[in-house]
Amino acid sequence: MMNRKKIIEVSNVVTRFGKNLVHDGIDLHVNEGEIYGFLGPSGCGKTTLLREIIMLENFQSGSIELLGQKIEYIRMRAAQRLRMQWGVLFQSNALFTSLTVAENIALSLQEYTNLSQETINDIVAFKIDIVGLKQFDGTLYPSEISGGMKKKAALARALVMDPKILFLDEPTSGLDPISAREFDTLIVKLRDLLNLTVVMVSHDLTSINNTLDRMAVIDNKKVVAEGALDEIKKIKSPFIERFFNNEK
């Protein structure tokens, strides 16, 4: 992966909410095809940074370049085209409770494409299959399926437009250990199968070990370490030592 091009570059990003300084010069980059993680203590701004990258939050200064475009200068129409090139799995799953699983997955296809309903149905069926759900699960409502199935349904929806980048916010949160490990395996499999770049926020040490190629550790409003896990563990930082000493 050393020769792969940068697909996301965050440069000197400063974020404030009122008088609260969240990021004080964040620098990191994500290479094409890797699974990359944002790590750090609660409240350090990991999810905020992810939301800034996907243009759901504003930052005060610095630059974020995504798929060759600097998002701080982007026009509305170009921003919409850019958004079509990624999928997002939110921590809450964010499924519409009044729609079936299949209807949730189909939403973007119906809104942003001119595909026939037959083609949409075929795509939805394929996405249901690749995330490990059964076709019958597509007929159920979110209230009728387990937490692990909701994650997979939300993942299928995030993948329905064949994105280049998949963003995951605490993807194993709320899952039992067996389901969490199955989800880790699924993410790696999908990265390889679909040629994805994956960016995730995670606290889950086992998931970090199982999935991440590289990561950024955010502490005291800055990136205190960036690299592969074995490189990160060698860095002298109070947070890194505390974090990884809790590893089982």
Largest sheet, in brief, is: 6 strands, mixed
The largest sheet has its strands arranged as 6-7-8-3-9-10
What is the radius of gyration?
Answer: 18 Å
Give start-end ranges of low-pLDDT stretches. Answer: none
Instruction: State the share of residues found in helices, binned by percent.
Output: 25-40%
Calculate the terminal CA-CA distance, rounded to whole Å: 28 Å
Number of helices: 9
Strand count = 10
Mean pLDDT, to the nearest integer, reads: 91
Q: Proportion of β residues?
A: 25-35%
Shape: globular
Query: Order of helices and strands, N to C?
Result: EEEHEEHEHHHEHEHEEHH
**Which structural category do the helix and sheet elements fall into?**
alpha/beta
What does this structure look like?
Strand 7 (165-169), helix 6 and strand 8 form a beta-alpha-beta unit. 37% of the residues lie in helices and 25% in strands. Helix 3 crosses helix 4, helix 4 crosses helix 5 (147-159) and helix 6 (177-194) packs parallel to helix 7. The chain is globular and about 55 Å long. The strands form two sheets. Strands 6-7-8-3-9-10 form a six-stranded mixed sheet, with helices on both faces. Strands 2-1-4-5 form a four-stranded antiparallel sheet, with helices on one face. It is built from nine helices and ten strands. The model has no long low-confidence stretch (mean pLDDT 91). It is an alpha/beta fold.
Throw out a few tags for this protein:
single chain; about 250 residues; alpha/beta; 9 helices; globular
Helix and strand topology:
Blueprint: E1 6-17, E2 20-31, E3 35-39, H1 46-53, E4 61-66, E5 69-70, H2 76-83, E6 86-89, H3 101-112, H4 117-130, H5 147-159, E7 165-169, H6 177-194, E8 197-201, H7 205-211, E9 214-219, E10 222-227, H8 229-232, H9 238-245
Parallel strand pairs: 3-8, 3-9, 6-7, 7-8
Antiparallel strand pairs: 1-2, 1-4, 4-5, 9-10
Helix pairs in contact: 3-4, 3-5, 4-5, 6-7
